[in-house]
Amino acid sequence: MSLKIEPLDLHQADISGSKWREVKAEELDIDNVSLAKTRINNVNMHAMNLNDVNMSEITILDANLTGVSIKHANLSHAVIDYVNLFGTEFHNVILPMEGDRLHKPDGQYKPISFHNCVLTNTQFNGCDLSNVELTDCDITGLRINGILLSDLIKE
């Protein structure tokens, strides 16, 4: 494929409905742009930086997100399905606090749930697990502060 090299400097332009096919568009600087309802297929976004982005209701399929860093994000009501999470770390995951837009004074939020997940060798450190419910879970080897849960149940 022979490429026509043509840097574009678009300012206050409406390019709605445009189609890009077999385009090299590396190191773009996109600022204050609406990409609502845009479809992106078969695209290399390696090392892309997204900052102050509204990605509500976005769908990501067949994606390699290895090494992705998500910080200061609202993932409320997100659905994560058929995902490899080995080596993944969650830090400072919280419910909305007083003063946050989504804060509910009564604390009644839709529960966070895990269904049919393999969490073998998962570690929870310094977590608030109050009112956690385990249903139909294999708890073989489950330890709380170093004590086997099965030993605690026997007592």
Overall description:
This protein has 155 residues and is low in regular secondary structure. Helix content is 4%, strand content 3%. A two-stranded antiparallel sheet has the order 1-2. β1 (143-144) and β2 form a beta hairpin. The radius of gyration is 22 Å and the shape is elongated. The termini are far apart.
Helix/strand/pairing category: little secondary structure
Number of strands: 2
How far apart the termini lie comes to 73 Å
Helical fraction equals under 10%
Gyration radius, rounded: 22 Å
Strand order of the largest sheet: 1-2
Tally of contiguous helical segments:
1
Q: Can you give the mean pLDDT? A: 90
Provide a concise account of the structure shown.
The chain has 155 residues and is low in regular secondary structure. It is built from one helix and two strands.
Entry keywords:
single chain; 155 residues; little secondary structure; two-stranded antiparallel sheet
